[in-house]
Amino acid sequence: MIHKFKLIQLIKIYICHQFYFMNNLKSIILGASYLVSFIPVLIFGQINPSNITIARDSYGVPHIFAKTDAELAYGLAWAHSEDDFKTIQQGYLAGNAILSKHIGIKGSGADFLSQMIRSDEIIERDYEKKISPEYKKILEAYSDGINTYAKLNPKKVLHPDLFPVTPKKMLKYAHLQLFISSEGDYWIRKIINDDIKYVVVDQSNELYSKQQKGSNTFAFNSSKTKDGNTYLAINTHQPLDGPVSWYEAHLQSEEGTNILGGLFAGSPNILIGVNENLAWCHTVNRPDKTDVYALQMDPNKKNKYIVDGEYYELEKFKAKLTVKFLGIPLNIKKRYYRSIFGPTLKNKSGYFSIRSPSLYEIRALEQWWRMGKSKSFSEFYSNLKMKAVPGYNIGYADKNDTIFYISNGLIPKREKGFDWENVVPGNTKKTLWTSTYNIDELPQVIQPKSGYFYNTNHSPFLSTSEDENPKQNNFSSNMGFETYDNNRSTRLKLLIDQNKKIDYDKFKEIKYDNTLPTPLAYSWMDVNALFDIDPNKYPDISDILIEIQNWDRKADVNSYGAGAYAILYFKLGKYYRQLPEPKIFPKSHLINALRDTKKHMIKFFGTEKVKLGDFQKLVRGNKEIPIFGLRDVLTAMASVPYKKGLSRVTAGESYIELVKFTKEGPEIESIISYGSSDDPESKHYDDQMDEYSLFKTKKMTLNKEKILSEAIKIYNPK
Question: pLDDT band at 5, cuts 50/70/90?
């Protein structure tokens, strides 16, 4: 409760602020426009926009042509800003710890995290000596494009403090994202107690958050295909909106770049895709990439900790955050620390440090750029040796019929004798690792005799035929690689093994398979007891139970079984949290969840027969359509409660790119969940939704002449 005197003071502050604001409104607006209007255009002075051509195809996808790669980056910045300037800025605001200045307390978690990992220090230290001159040009040109767009569109600027964008500001955002992808934020949430509100996380339903991050990739070479061509499925499962949703673009320069693929907002180059010679995809992997240390503090000396009998002093810092009270921005500070192990936080149990290789590497974007420019497998593999991308499985195929899979990651070389899956002691340098495994020391499959590889975020030791799989006992348990199957891997392996030879139609059929296996193989829970319950013993729910038990396990929009199961999955959430590990659902929980399912159906639909498409929707603005998929089918969909008892898909099938390498070159088709633009006024805001929902794709090409002849709009950036 706020003391009466303090409340009066706050009200006075509020009134004063309001008076000042009203009396200085004009100057404030002029000041903001001044900050934007005087953003240096082409601050690095290397780009002539008239040399850059942007061709928009019938779906609004930008095809960018230029003489140099730097000009491509400028064109990409311009085109992406036209389509989604807001999301680009939101990412950069978070990476530069000023998101809270824009949105208030909801942004303070990201701002705190950005400051705590000290991105500015490592970038200042390593930028000049570790980022190549070639890639600096890319970063500089992209920054120029963003800044010029901001200058010419001042009303779209979210916060003037972000500008001018610089390469170092861009890298700070990448640094934050890659730390998060290394599960750094997961461990920070573990450390921070519930009384600390600076990291805003919705943990209201643990089951719904499971497997949000995923993806599929699989490839077949000529020994497995009927036509002798090589196939690769680029099939990522990401959020459909926001900073890690996919944007599709095509980049072609006279410096050897010709690549079509996907990238996230704010990236100056493509992250997954295909060029004239090869293609690659990522899926999320979860080896142990981050460690937590319990420090041994000196009980008699504040901020002193002990390592191997020596005393060290914690470095002290204060994160600067912004919150709003009665509309007034208020600056607050939150303490954090740093030990020799890494960023450090205090909670009720003590002091804990975080250590992740991602914190000490700033070249990930450059590695992706070099991967995209690779012309052969040997060159691609050599670029992986940069060891700058901290995680992700990689699936690869090329025109020479080579296929390749690796569970990539910056994985520390750890001392034996410690429980690295949990918190380790921070009182000895034995736990202070200083190196990571080389690329050739990671689980991988190169040109298997089986003719295929596959990964669906499951174990890298189950990636091809049994006799060619990487052997688990050849890798240290301290690396923390996954050892489980999941529904998608189980189903995909079955489909592959059913076909001695596969044609391209079968390849697409496999990619769009939406069937759960029997028995179910969720890696995070076991609900197979559901299919052993006798409906006759539970007449009140027998109809729903029979519908699910007789269901063909296909996640089709017109399936009543899929509809019942989808609602049941939601209802399992509150019971999931009650279960100990391993999460095996007893019959009692399943029966209760089935009764909850029935209540939901009757309340919102007036019937116990509900189709999946009547319950689950793909929503974009005012457009709402039935959509396929469930969690952990190959066509995976993750949804959240929506309106009137419905669910809305938020993640899953996002960007799909299918590649077939022929003698004439790569044949490419793709689709994205919504459209190329995030502007509700654009016709490309939702123009791919219908085809996407029907398992259709659009034909794409790397051929400049064909693209220009068919383009709807051709122009130069400004």
Answer: very low
